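Same chain as my last thread, 327 residues:
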Amino acid sequence: MRDERSLLQAVLGNGQFLIALTGVSLALSGGFAILQSVSGQLLPQDSHAIGMDSAALMQAGNRHLLGFMFHDRVAYGGTLLAIGAGYLWLAAFPMQARAAWAWWSLLVSGAIGFLAFLTYLGQGYLDTWHGVATLFLLPVFVTGLWRSRPGNFSLHQVQKENSDSGGRFAWWGRILLAMCAVGLILAGITIAIFGMTRVFVPSDLKFIKLDPGTLRRISPSLIPVISHDRAGFGGGLCSIGCLLLFMARWAELNRSLVEIVAVMGCAGFGAAISVHFAVGYLDFFHLFPGFVGLTIFLVAEGLLWAGWWKQTRTVTEQRPAGSVGAL
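reply #2:
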């Protein structure tokens, strides 16, 4: 039969390319946010809004103020890296089989992620680069969702063979990963609300050594700029949490699953925790929830690896003698 597809149909395909493109764009944006913070420079639109560059801002305030702003941005960048990696994995693996749970995980996490853009309304600062990126990615993501929609949207088909094949290790790994995911969602909601309203918690002001009134005198736009990254970080945590929750419940236990969970954890927890040490923000009570979440995540990842290893051993032992194949 002749191929009568249009060029547009060939490019759009079954939506996996568009979802992968969304993932790549998010990962690149997260990497850029981290690298830009490491350079010690504010984004041009941030400098324009505040009315001064990073050197002038540090002189008007102090080095802790600049470090605090970078710590929020690096944490936000880590969430974008994690989400982008998760979307790339979904496009490459579960979506190949038109898994309904993968489509729903994209819908829920993506809706939260894009709606998090509106958190700028809390303090009124609109990041133009963020706005342009959102306008570019939203139609790409929505089109990818539409093209990749499954034939059956039901989530009632529980994959018992996937959750049980790794034994108790995998079962507990999924439970702990789901607990970590719920914790990320709750933390994200809390941070997003604070980012849109109060912006700071007491430990923040203790670290910055400046009160909100002084920050407003430095620049009326300074707190809104800080609020933007903080609220965005909260939205990113909610999006990651939803994605991990779907993965913990429905994803097939295989090598790619345990690898992508590790990658997402390294990006999210790695950026959010390590940046505190880089800028010297080491308040115990501020970091404690992050370390609790990291501990649960590491145990969950270890159990998933153990479950996957047990599963591969079982499959190998059950093969007929002389059979050939690769796991």
